[in-house]
Amino acid sequence: MRMYDLILKKRKGEALTKEEIYFFIEGYTKGSIPDYQVSALLMAVYFQKMNKEETVYLTEAMMHSGEVIDLSSIEGIKVDKHSTGGVGDKTTIALAPIAAACGIPVAKMSGRGLGHTGGTIDKLESIPGFCVEMTKETFIQNVNVMKLAIAGQTANLTPADKKLYALRDVTATVDNISLIASSIMSKKLASGADAIVLDVKTGSGAFMQDIDEAFLLAKEMVDIGNRVGRETVAIVTDMNQPLGYAIGNSLEVKEAVQLLKGEGPKDLEKLCITLGAHMLLLGKKVGTEYEGKRMAKAAIDSGEALNVLKNFVKQQNGQIDCIENLDLLPKTKEVYSLKADKRGYIHKIQGDIVGASALTLGAGRDTKDSKIDLSVGILLNKKMGDYVETGEVLAYIHYNDENRRDLAIEQLLKAYEIEDEAPEHRPLIFGVVTKNGIQRI
């Protein structure tokens, strides 16, 4: 078998076999197939697409390119949740304790973020002492005892995907549904969960800005998961403005804890309850979404989810005092008030621009070696649809460096559009995708 023949075959629009896909993934992972040939194949895939069988084969090949985590010694149905990423998306920090409080084992492997803020791991490390490094035995024990553990991804998890993604990033072949879906699902499947809930974001602050494209991606990933024996559901949700009010690592942790204390933003609470309901459905704890929502809400109202978070933080060596007193979390030296220069209704808070502003402040990484400032970020004071007077505060910029602050102010002002008339309402949740098809709301 020759890589040249695979490139030619896909260039002609023909489907690659399972054996051919495994051949190229194994060869590329081991280094026997060079970047330039894989680049040519990726470009052929980009233009000629992949069918469902090819996409499943590609996912499985990447999944098996490294370690596949065995979680069979954890009792119960393990349900994982994955978000395609957005601005202010701190959902896991609140959702995981909610699901665990309802009896769902959450054994989560998370990565560090590239982009406007850190990933879930970075955000949790805003809690002094919090540790994500542990043995597999400790990880499994924590889930069996407390129903929750979050650890950093192992270095040998889907190495083929790491190499392929880096190549896609520099060859303009990132935005292909099959390549995106197989990349996400290979990591989720290798992480060992029995069932998966996907939060597929759409809007200005998401990778998939078009709603129809978001549904296509959701359907592709749901089909992959179910075809390899993992029950998978996707919720398509709004990211046309930041989720909640906080953007930045310690600020987002604070907001997630506030939610579990019954004081969080309504959009974040609604999303967590909806995703939690579907985790409970897949975990066979409830029979309907309505029952799942009631159980998830009860876990917040009773304080049980907050107790789970505290125990989880303590178990992973974090300072629990920071959960009880949020003022102990990392804080900046200064806070700047960004004010409206006109009156009217907020029509737009461009999510990607807000994210870029947070990155400018130091909340995220330009490269994997960049150092994150866990204290900086943006705290919105108004959201889309709100009315503001001239001089009223739109957002608070938490900063440690005046030069970075000035650049962030210039960026952030461009994120806002203020008009005389109130904007049309945009829903938080657009629909649900299951093995039975797409249900738009």
Folded structure, characterized:
GO terms for molecular function: 1,4-alpha-oligoglucan phosphorylase activity; metal ion binding; thymidine phosphorylase activity. It catalyses: thymidine + phosphate = 2-deoxy-alpha-D-ribose 1-phosphate + thymine; uridine + phosphate = alpha-D-ribose 1-phosphate + uracil; 2'-deoxyuridine + phosphate = 2-deoxy-alpha-D-ribose 1-phosphate + uracil. Pfam families: Glycos_trans_3N, Glycos_transf_3, PYNP_C. This protein is of the alpha+beta class. It has three domains: 3-48, Transferase, Pyrimidine Nucleoside Phosphorylase, Chain C (Transferase, Pyrimidine Nucleoside Phosphorylase, Chain A, domain 3, Up-down Bundle), CATH 1.20.970.10; 79-156 and 190-324 and 429-440, 3-Layer(aba) Sandwich (Pyrimidine Nucleoside Phosphorylase, Chain A, domain 2), CATH 3.40.1030; 331-419, Pyrimidine nucleoside phosphorylase-like, C-terminal domain (Aldehyde Oxidoreductase, domain 3, Alpha-Beta Complex). The chain is built from 17 helices and 14 strands. β13 (429-434) and β14 (437-440) form a beta hairpin. α2 packs parallel to α4, α9 crosses α10 (211-227) and α16 (351-361) packs antiparallel against α17 (402-413).
